[in-house]
Amino acid sequence: MRRIAFICAAALAAVAALMPGARAERLTVSQYGILVPTLPYAIALEKGFFKEEGLAIDGFIQSHGGGTSVRNMLASDLPVAEMALPAAIAAFKQGIDVRIIADHANTIGELVWVAKKGSPVKTVADLKGKKAAFTSPRSVTEIIVKTVLKRHGLLDQTETIAAGGIGAALTALNNGAVDAATLVDPVLTKRGHEYQVVFAAANELPNLSWAMFVTTAKYLSTNEEKVRKIVRARAKAVDFIYANREETARIYAKHWNVSEAEAKAILPKFYEIRHWKRGEFNMQGFATMLEGMELVGALEQGFDIKKVLDDRFQPLLKEKN
């Protein structure tokens, strides 16, 4: 009888594992494990916030942004994703029924433009007549550097060059091909002593909405409660980050493959600028990004961001757990 009971229990477990509700799912997160804004997802996974909401999310589909994030989301069984605002708007303009349901960062974070140590390029003003690298055409880095140069009256007096990536930009700087290049953590903290910061994007554009939580109108119409649970799990993670700095540093170290000492050196700047947010829409932050998108030719003037926004989860995001 015991053997029969064991066999029955095993069979039921096997059947349960095959049921759609029990199948593990992966969430699409652009730049996961690379950029610090994605940290709340690691927290939600480690602390069991997804499980608390009854979700079977056990990992993430990582991409380097742009159209790849959109394609990954659409190809996934769970078509919900974090991606940059330009990628979401580009998808919308291509006829994909994307909807932005949350706005996940107060600033662009640690992104800086650096020059070689000892270079005469020490401030934005010093970029006049110089060359500054960004990652790729119509990327967030191009939007930022051109918006900053425009606001300093230097857009037509500084040559901006698409390097192909952050690593490639730094290589171009080291080889003398450009005078300033993009840099982010953990390299910024690990090797920052080799360079001098020309400007920090968060200082120049302190109010910037760029990391969006996105799904499709079709998926949202039939899975609103499931999406709500994902939104709530991430919001719990953001609250945890601000309330538990020591454990947050340990989780960051694990998922970013750095030491705990390095994690504790990297994260304080993000707390200072209140980088992570629960998801409240920031219309001024949207306006700054749209200005930059127009500047790089990624958007026509007068685009109405409200056409892409869905605010049904905003009351939840404005009230802490």
Total helical elements = 16
Main CATH class of the largest domain: Alpha Beta
Order of helices and strands: HEHHEHEHEEEHEHEHEHEHHHHHHH
How are the strands of the biggest sheet laid out side by side? 2-1-3-10-4
Question: N- to C-terminal separation?
Answer: 48 Å
User: Can you give the mean pLDDT?
Assistant: 91
Taking the sheet with the most strands, its summary is: 5 strands, mixed
Content of β-strand: 15-25%
In total, how many beta strands? Answer: 10
Classified in CATH, the superfamily of the largest domain is Periplasmic binding protein-like II
Assembly of the depicted chains: single chain
Gyration radius (Cα, Å) is 21 Å
Shape: globular
Q: What portion of residues is helical?
A: 40-55%
User: How many discrete domains?
Assistant: 2
For the record, the CATH architecture of the largest domain stands as 3-Layer(aba) Sandwich
Low-confidence stretches: 1-21
What CATH calls the topology of the largest domain is D-Maltodextrin-Binding Protein, domain 2
Structural class based on helices, strands and sheet pairing: alpha/beta
